[in-house]
Amino acid sequence: MKSICTMCARGGSKGVIGKNARELLGKPLLAWSIEQARQTGLFEAIAFSSDSDLLLETALQAGADLAVKRPDEMATDTAPKIPAIRHCLEQAIARTGITPDVFVDLDVTSPLRLPSDIAGAVELLNRSGARSVITGAPARRSPYFNLVEERADGSVGLSKSADPPIVRRQDAPRCFDMNASIYVWRVAPFLESPAVFYPDTQLFEMPEERSVDIDSDLDFTLVELLLRKRLALPETQS
Predict the structure, then answer these.
(1) pLDDT value of residue 238
(2) From the candidate CATH numbers 3.20.20.60, 3.40.1700.10, 3.30.70.100, 3.90.550.10, the one assigned to the domain spanning 3-137+176-230
(3) Three-class SS of residue 81?
(4) For residue 208, which of 121, 142, 218, 237 sits 20 to 30 Å off, Cα-Cα?
């Protein structure tokens, strides 16, 4: 089975300025994901997509095989990510001559995953026969029990209802927070109809401590603390 890894990161960031190249324990944030992909031994090529020349050069220095310049229209604040992932995949196929059966997209803002998480998500795709696999951690709130949403008139109610009503969290169906860490697709159905969710999409469960997605300075600090603990590094002095 042939597989390719893609990573897509814009140069701009509103939550944490310059976060994708920001140093995390001595190396750029994006380098953690590239190294994890390489450590799995699964991929014929690792392709990195960005609108930023600086990020593309940093990715190559960190071990990416291909630098894919993202079109400007796919790099705006409102642009969805799926078209950028598809563009990166198509460029990787064209430039390597490899037609993979499966590809994996890693979000560089989720560096706490392990190579074994990537391998596990790919194994789930193969074992289940599904078209795609996403990753997530057990949700802290249940839409059946204690997660509410606001209605158009300003009132609130449970996000999901059940008959009879669920009165204990333990009785609710298992729910997960997507952690934006690993996405696995079969290439043919993705290229035919690019989407995150299909009727047979599966979820590979990851623990909360490996599921932090960096979207703020607080997230960055938390990720650094968790990595220091994992690597048994001393804490910095304030």
Answers:
(1) 46
(2) 3.90.550.10
(3) coil
(4) 237
